[in-house]
Amino acid sequence: MADNFTFELVSPERLLVSEEASIVTLPGADGDMGVLANHAPLMTSLRPGVLTVTAATGGDDSYFVRGGFADIGTTGVTVLAEFAVKASEMTQEMFDAQKSLVEAELEEAKTEANEDKMASTQAYLDQLTHMERSLVTA
């Protein structure tokens, strides 16, 4: 029997998930990563993407997350997301709202003439746009 661990997904509004999981796949800042029980402790920032959790009881659930952090330890994973919603519930209106927030950050970076912030925010916007094409169907 595979080892399981505690998984929690928290958005600013509420706790979305708290359950025993066998694997969690995260959209880490440097690429997707799979987390199993007894993973080496680390903390990573998240990029816009799909987080997938396989419950200990079986079955997968997917969530769209925009930003935040994942705190990974040997006994569990806690994701603190800037925005999170079940992937199947993501709407065009939700994407438009998220893109508006990032576009405002990009305009602020341009006003400040902060090239590093402009580049990272533009990359973030590009990732968000890519996710939009993947998740929202006409």
How would you characterize this protein structure?
The protein is of the alpha+beta class and 138 residues long. Helix content is 30%, strand content 43%. The chain is built from 2 helices and 7 strands. It has helices at residues 92-111, 115-135, and strands at residues 5-10, 15-28, 31-35, 42-45, 49-55, 60-72, 76-86. The protein has a 5-stranded mixed beta barrel. Strand 2 (15-28) and strand 3 (31-35) form a beta hairpin. Helix 1 (92-111) packs antiparallel against helix 2. The longest helix is centred in the last third of the chain and has 21 residues, at 115-135. The protein starts with a strand and ends with a helix. The model has no long low-confidence stretch (mean pLDDT 87).
Largest sheet entry: 5 strands, mixed, barrel
Spatial order of the strands forming the largest sheet: 1-2-5-6-7
Fraction of residues in H or I helices = 25-40%
Average residue-wise pLDDT: 87
Separation of the first and last Cα atoms: 42 Å
Give the number of helices: 2
- Rg over CA atoms, rounded to whole Å, is 16 Å
Number of strands: 7
Unreliable parts: none
Structural class: alpha+beta
